[in-house]
Amino acid sequence: MVIADLLGVTRMTAVMVNDRGRISHWDDIAADLFGAARPQALGRPPGDLLRLPREHRGAFEPEAFGHVWCGACTLPRADNGEPAEIGWWVYPIDGAPGDHGVRVLALAADLRSLRRDGIGITVGDLLLAPPAGPGPSDGAARRPATVRLLRVEPTLAGPSPDGPDPFAAPFADRLAELLPALDPAEFGTIASQVLALGCPAVSLGLTLRLPLVPQTRAAPAAAPTVPLPRPAPRTPAALPPRARRGFPHAMEPLAFLGAAGEQIGSSLDHLQAARTLAEVLVPRLADFAAVELLESVVADSAPPADEVDETTPMRRVAVAHNDEPGRWDDAVPEDEPLSLPSCTPFVQAMRTGRPVHIPRVDEGQAARLAAAFGAGDPRPLFAGRALLVVPLIARGRVLGTFMLLRKKDRHAFDQLDLAMVDELARRAALCVDNGRLYRREVQVAEELQRSMLPDDPPDVAGARVRYRYRPAGQAAQVGGDWFDAIPLPGCRLGLVVGDVMGHGLTSAAIMGQLRTAVRTLAAEDMRPDRVLRQLDGLARRLGEDYLATCLFAVYDPVERRCTVANAGHVPPVLVAADGESRVLPVPPGVPVGVGGEPFETTEFKVEDGSQLVLCTDGLLERRDRDIDAGLEELRARLAEASGDLDRTCDDLLDGLAAPTPADDIAIVAVGFDGIPLDDVVTWELEPVPGSVPWIRAQVGVRLAGWGLDDLADTARLLVSELVTNALVHGAGSVGLRLIKGRTLLCEVHDDGADMPHLRHTDATDESGRGLQLVGHLSTRWGTHRTEGGKVVWFEQRVPPR
User: What does each C-alpha distance from 1 to 127, 178, 222, 382, 402 come to in angstroms?
Assistant: First the structure.
């Protein structure tokens, strides 16, 4: 195939047609070229898929088998939708009698890359001449005809019956121009044979350097798996052996393109893809390569620009050369911001979408190029060298450019070089854009994950909390693991870990809803089993397949008690103050969302200095270890743990987790310190009005003993309001508890069922202002139900010592 002036890289495929004229073989490249998948193509006439002109469809009819034919059609490109010319050739394959087959070779090329003028044979036309003899012809085979192939329209004629063919000499001259490797004596012979036979010189395709893109499933330089067809009686003679010796050399660009494309596409990091592009270009195609990307592409702060001018910021992200190390570090450093004038080849290439080639850069051009490159002086880099600037365009948007330079002792870039660089530019641009999109997807996934997980652990009295979270090895896929530490009324601490089954946005969304529900239900001071029951109902309302394991525990630092309920989750491990560790025997339960099964609450006494560790199954389960074995190993490691919770969490991740975990990992470690008994005081009050002044006085004395005189006046006022409300609106006994921790907590409880609430009061109302006063003077306040009534509480900020 004559391809000397090709400005693109083509792809070729073989399609088999059976003796009934129906497609029997159709591969992935054919599906890309003609837009029909294999199931859609098999068993159909080729003319239906190729959308051939009516006069060409007869080439695929069974009665036309045994004749060579060619043609072309226009189809949209698979990558950008632009029209491309698809050239096709039909050759017969010898077989058993009655078993006729046809191989169709299809070549794809860009319309813009193959427009040439001239007479006789031109670039890419496979030495085509009008067919002679029977076959799909209009009967006028001997007069000049026009055959289009890849946007090339050569005009050829058959031999003249009255003398030598007038077209033979121009035809031979054109062959000598396009096939310089052949012996000049053979040009006339080949031209005469082609014009006489009226069919392609098929074997010429084996003598030239053709940059074909191999099918990805095969090695780039592998021999064809289907034998080449034996020439039919009307095909021209094969070329001499010395012409066929160029075939191995023709495969070298294929091997390079395949290996380079594999290296560029091996990373999902768009900046690494740009660096790899520069590295593979040197020294095979250039002595210096630099990649400049738009700043918006580098930072992924916005989509690539639609319009590029001198105000568009860029950044040089990769430099590669074969000079001594550090030779050009000062002149063209990596990670340098650029603002290139519109007159430079870089902006010109990005605006036009086509490469800019300067065979030799003179001194004036070198000075103008150097002026656009910041503070360095790269004039020695440009002067006297061949320069090629190629745009990086993907999905119709400009991403940047890359620059190639060759030393003075190397020739300028030829058409084969341009074709190879153009193919690498398309591959690299897609890899850079895919990496940019993947990075954005990862950032969105990580941001979603962060927004659904807690921030820093809460600072609460009587307990220390630390946690760790490690996502699964697939960075762009969020999971359903969650954890939380929830401050509860009465200085208590709620602890929860859970795992929604599955991965992806759906699991993450369910996880977010369940975590919010747990925080809301826990604030109502429900027992852990009731919290899980409510969570189970919510999961069933969300959907039938929404299942999650969950463990919820509440630690009371005053009572030194831990209450736990489990819904099919991994049990926690308790480490005593003396270092003894044990797996808490909590009832396993069923995952929330199953329904129909009760949950149980178990209470454990915990001593000061002990630790509780909760985790998800991603920490314990691996390919070489089940959950039970992992749980036992966790217990053994915690027996040697120190009192430093951060170190404990890190040691568990380093020792138990896989390097790239298949599932998310969540760890919550809690140190139980308790609240000193001297910092807690409780009073039981008689439900009589005289209790109000008495408790005011008791509170003042206690605060003075704690050194909190600054809080005494406000505390006495708020205590009198809450106790009075309990006497008026409550029932039964009234009690008050003061706890000095991070804040001063005051709790007033009674046996009444009616919950107080804020309300709007008019100027003439005689009541309803007590809670407004509490809300105004306290740091926080709230109410919650208990098994025997309700509690109304408020907090005051303790001034630092």
Answer: 8, 10, 19, 36, 31
pLDDT at 235 over 50: no
Closest CA to 594 of 538, 646, 652, 633: 538
Pairing mode, if any, of strands 734-740 and 680-685?
Answer: antiparallel
The Cβ of residue 126 has, within 10 Å, a number of other Cβ atoms equal to: 26
pLDDT in tens, 533-556: 999 998 888 877 788 999 999 999
Q: With 80 as the cut, is the pLDDT of residue 310 above it?
A: no
Any idea which residue has 């039909």 for tokens?
90
DSSP three-state, residue 290: strand
Are 504 and 538 in contact by the 8 Å Cβ rule? The answer is no
Domain boundary, last residue among 243, 276, 297: 243
Write the CB contacts of 168 (distance below 8 Å, at least 6 apart in sequence): 188, 191, 192, 195
Nearest Cα to Cα of residue 757 among 725, 714, 724, 789: 725
Question: Can you spell out the DSSP letters for 347-395?
Answer: HHHHHHSS-EEESS--HHHHHHHHHTSTTS--HHHHTTSEEEEEEEEET
Mind listing the pLDDT tens digit for each residue in 606-640? 999 999 999 998 888 877 788 888 899 999 889 87
Strands of 69-76's sheet in order across:
23-25, 12-17, 101-110, 83-93, 69-76
Which residue type is seen at 121? I
Shared domain check, 696 and 630: no
Q: At what angle do helices 270-281 and 415-452 cross, to 10 degrees?
A: 160
Both 127 and 271 in a single domain? no
Q: Which two tokens stand for residue 797?
A: 């900020």
Average pLDDT, the chain: 75
Domain CATH for 54: 3.30.450.20
Is 188 among the domain residues?
A: yes
Report yes or no on 613 lying in a domain: yes
Domain housing 73: 12-243
pTM of the predicted protein model: 0.57
Rounded (10°) CA dihedral 687, 691, 695, 697: 180
Please report, in angstroms and rounded to a whole number, the separation of the first and last CA atoms in the chain: 90
DSSP 238: P
